[in-house]
Automatic annotation (TrEMBL):
Zn(2+) binds at residues 94, 97, 131, 134. Keywords: Cytoplasm, DNA-binding, Iron, Metal-binding, Repressor, Transcription, Transcription regulation, Zinc. The gene is zur. This is Fur family transcriptional regulator, zinc uptake regulator. InterPro entries: FUR (IPR002481), Fur_C (IPR043135), WH-like_DNA-bd_sf (IPR036388), WH_DNA-bd_sf (IPR036390). It is found in: Cytoplasm. GO terms for cellular component: cytoplasm.
Length: 137
């Protein structure tokens, strides 16, 4: 998802455009990896004196609920990135820099027989480790 698509989705859901919301979405659109609320706050503070964690978390929650942002938990802290695709997929996530790599397979394709008779309502699969750049650093 790019910045314009994210802003359109926000508008189509009935939420108003603000410069803060646009800057938050621009931050994630330009990053291309998972980032924390703390990192976003550090990015926003020079532009918005007195911006609070409450404002950051409220917008992160909204964008996640609208499907604009994806989230994961790394080391007990929630991390976010802009939704990268409209189709079902999973990621490898670097624990050091937050970079992601899309995985081409879904483990659910291999366990159908194990769950015969069960009603599956959803799943999440992520692989964690270090990307090639962080292994060298």
């Amino acid at each position: 998802m790019n910045l314009n698509e994210a802003l359109d989705q926000l508008k189509n859901a009935g939420y108003k455009y603000t410069n803060k919301r646009a800057m938050i979405l621009e931050f994630f659109a330009n990053e291309g990896r998972y980032r924390t609320a703390k990192e976003l706050l550090s990015f926003m503070e020079p532009h918005y004196d007195g911006i609070s964690f409450d404002t950051i978390y409220r917008n992160l929650h909204l964008f996640h609920e609208l499907g604009i942002l994806e989230s994961t938990e790394l080391d007990g802290e929630k991390h976010y990135q802009i939704r990268c695709a409209n189709h079902h997929h999973h990621h490898f996530i670097c624990r050091k820099c937050g970079a992601t790599k899309r995985l081409q397979v879904c483990p659910m394709d291999f366990i159908d027989d194990d769950l015969n008779g069960y009603m599956i309502e959803g799943h999440k699969f992520e692989v964690y480790g270090l990307c090639p750049a962080c292994q060298v650093a």
